[in-house]
Write a structure and sequence with these properties.
Distance between the termini of chain A: 21 Å
Helix content of chain A: over 70%
Strand content of chain A: 5-15%
Number of strands of chain A: 4
Number of helices of chain A: 9
Radius of gyration of chain A: 31 Å
Distance between the termini of chain B: 28 Å
Shape of chain B: globular
Largest sheet of chain B: 6 strands, mixed
Number of domains of chain A: 2
Largest sheet of chain A: 4 strands, antiparallel
Strand content of chain B: 25-35%
Number of strands of chain B: 10
Structural class of chain A: alpha+beta
Oligomer: heterodimer
């Protein structure tokens, strides 16, 4: 009985969809546009997050040891670094190693460093390269390290790090706000379409009520219609993203080689469909439920 | 079958549609409700199916207080009452078969039941030969026959007909009333609200008279003109 009715309700919902042809197309269109814009934002957010994570992994604290610090103080510092809960790993770089690295970095210009090989002449200091468990903790940990014994100075490119973190935060808040606004618009439109169906089917609904249809018997086709609108509204944006993102990736690879690798096509489709499909379904059912609650007194 | 005790209905605008109306209708009766427009007939009929509820007093249908029915209980009540409307309320773009199937499905019938019952009820109202005709192709009398066929399709215990002949000529009206009479003879209780003096006088059945929301008469073999 239940399954037979469900098949009937689904068939009815499709009939309604075609019966209100233009209004259905308008609703599906708006849902599609909404979800497409949303998908683009999801992709941007995803890639910014991806790049941020890459950059974050490179964020390290450079701790320079005070040249005048003695062995005892240096040992104390080492002990403190070992026991610090937020420090994931650290590496000691002697000033000789430092010089060697500098020479590698300078490449052809390395000749300028001639004469500094003598330890007495080496202007660099012994240091530690420190990475934290959570990149966002870098500023706080760096501040703490400055108070430790034997520490000459601490550097971590503070401005870049803080700007990066605040940009990511602003982007995420903007995306969330846009998502809510667009979702509300789509819900409103779906609710409007369902309401139109109800008005067209007013006579049928009245007859159903008089012959003893249960409330749910009357409600189900409208819920399915909302579901259909929502699901159909996800097809276009997913197709758009499927073909569009591939082209964007290829274009960036060919024209902007300095941009770090973006999220792969498969991973992006996976993430976008995880947001768009459930959202389309929820918007469809929600829009329908609003109309049922407000206009269908069963 | 129906037990009304001091049933009163006041609307939000302050108008009073029914004032302390009491009566008892037994199973298998045929009863006319007569009175001018606004006398309270339609309000009372709407209460039988819980489209409205009394402001005070008690109304029991099939032994149950209508005001206390909730959700599915209301559906069950309505499945036991076949309703016939003055304006037929049929789906014009559908066939006779589909119109009745639509109502039967909504009331929970299976496709097998529909296939069996629909030809039977259409035969009962004399329209079996038009089973797959569109409702839009029928005459007024035929439309009301389909309305009656739909009302009896779920095998109700009671038929409630609000002005069933209001849109029909005298000859067709008599045919419709005779059809309802034949349904009543088979045991179904039939309640008819009407302005049609001819059919009331012709049938000599029980008549309940309403005037300005009050019950002013109740006669076992009444005539339309008693108080009007």
């Amino acid at each position: 009985m239940f399954f037979r009715n469900m098949i009937f309700f689904i068939a009815e919902s499709w009939k309604n969809l075609f019966r209100n042809g233009w209004m259905s197309i308008a609703s599906i269109g708006v849902v599609a546009v909404t979800l497409f814009i949303l998908s683009v934002f999801v992709l941007v957010n995803l890639n910014v997050h991806h790049i941020t994570e890459e950059v974050k992994d490179d964020i390290e604290i450079a701790l320079y040891i005070d040249e005048e610090a003695g062995g005892e103080e240096r040992n104390q510092l080492l002990e403190k670094l070992r026991n610090h809960p937020d420090i994931a790993e650290f590496e000691f770089i002697s000033k000789e190693e430092g010089l060697e690295r500098l020479r590698e970095q300078m490449g052809e210009e390395a000749g300028l460093l001639e004469g500094y090989d003598n330890p007495e002449e080496n202007p660099l200091r012994d240091s530690y390269e420190i990475s934290t468990s959570i990149p966002e903790q870098v500023p706080q940990v760096a501040g703490e390290l400055e108070t430790y014994p034997a520490v000459g100075s601490v550097e971590y490119g503070s401005e870049v790090v803080e700007n990066l973190f605040s940009f990511t935060r602003v982007l995420q808040i903007t995306v969330m706000a846009l998502m809510v606004a667009l979702a509300l618009t789509a819900t409103f439109l779906i609710s409007h379409t369902i309401r139109l169906t109800m008005m067209l089917r007013k006579r049928e609904i009245m007859i159903m009520k008089y012959v003893g249809a249960t409330n749910w018997f009357i409600r189900w086709p409208f819920l399915f219609e909302g579901f259909n609108l929502g699901v159909l509204g996800t097809v276009l944006p997913l197709a758009g993203i499927y073909f569009g993102y591939q082209s964007v990736l290829e274009w960036i690879e060919g024209n902007l080689p300095f941009i770090p690798p973006l999220v792969s096509h498969e991973a992006a489709m996976w993430e976008v469909s995880h947001v768009v499909v459930p959202l389309g379904v929820v918007l469809g059912i929600l829009g329908s439920a609003i109309s049922i609650g407000r206009y269908l007194k069963v | 079958m129906i037990e009304a005790h001091n049933v009163t209905k006041k609307f939000h605008d302050g108008s009073q549609a029914l004032k302390k109306v009491s009566f008892l209708i037994e199973r298998g009766e045929f009863v006319f409700f007569v009175g001018h427009s606004g006398a309270g007939k339609s309000t009372l009929f709407k209460m039988f199916i819980k489209e409205l509820v009394p402001t005070s007093g008690t109304l029991k249908v099939f032994g149950r207080e209508v005001s206390s029915l909730r959700g599915k209980q209301v559906s069950v009540l309505r499945r036991n009452i076949g309703i016939v409307f003055q304006d037929f309320r049929l789906l014009e773009e559908k066939t006779l078969y589909d119109n009745i199937a639509f109502a039967m499905r909504a009331a929970g019938a299976t496709p097998k039941e529909m296939k069996k019952v629909i030809p039977q009820v259409l035969e009962q109202v004399g329209l079996k030969n038009k089973i797959f005709s569109k409702v839009g192709e029928l005459s007024g009398g035929e439309l009301q026959r389909v309305g009656i066929a739909r009302a009896i399709s779920n095998r109700p215990n009671m038929i409630v007909a609000d002005e069933p002949t209001g849109n029909l000529d005298p000859k067709t009206s008599m045919e419709i009333i005779n059809l309802l009479r034949s349904i009543n003879i088979k045991g179904t209780t039939v309640l008819v609200a009407t302005h049609d003096q001819h059919i009331v006088d012709e049938l000599k059945k029980r008549v309940i008279y309403l005037e300005n929301g009050q019950l002013v008469g109740d006669e076992a073999k009444g005539a339309y003109a008693r108080v009007l």
